[in-house]
Write a structure and sequence with these properties.
By secondary structure, the chain is mainly β. 11% of the residues lie in helices and 36% in strands. The protein has one helix and twelve strands; from the N terminus they run αββββββββββββ. Strands 3, 4, 5, 8, 11 and 12 form a six-stranded mixed beta sheet that branches. It has a four-stranded mixed beta sheet with strand order 2-1-6-10, covered by helices on one side. Strands 7-9 form a two-stranded antiparallel sheet.
């Protein structure tokens, strides 16, 4: 069932957003985001976390190694409810290991995570202060 949903979502991404088949080679797993306004934070469903100044607290969203994330912004107001998914962990060049760019709702973007090694990756929304999530990459 989950694989069928992911395949259908991948086909919809190609048709709706113009994602090329080269970007859709790795299976994309849906991660829903929404609830943000210009005065409040949004939520990642699932995967939302809080940050207490030292640690990220929450239940991570799990994907298997080799999968990408299809970030689905369910918010209808495109001007005030854009979201993003930016890794806190950086690569050797100092850049996030994944970054969705701004996803203005309602819309979907494929976040390239298929290159990540198993582990837990905290991330944030660069649009909404204090909006955090956890992504856990597991071995196949």
């Amino acid at each position: 069932m989950r694989k069928g949903l992911s395949v259908a979502l991948g086909v919809a991404l190609v048709l709706v957003s113009g994602v090329t088949p080269a970007h859709a080679q790795a299976e994309s797993v849906p991660l829903f985001v929404g609830g943000g306004t210009n005065v409040s934070n949004g939520y990642f469903f699932p995967g939302t976390a809080t940050y207490d100044g030292k640690d990220f607290i929450g239940v991570p969203y799990q994907i298997q190694q080799g999968q990408n994330v299809a970030l689905i912004n369910t918010d209808a107001a495109a001007l005030t409810n854009a979201h993003s998914m930016v890794s806190i962990k950086k690569n050797k060049k100092g850049r996030p290991v994944f970054h969705s760019g701004y996803v203005r709702g309602p819309a979907t973007a494929v976040v390239r995570t298929s290159h990540l090694k198993p582990g837990i990756y905290p991330y944030y929304c660069s649009v909404h202060y204090g909006m955090y999530g956890l992504l856990e990459v597991t071995k196949i």
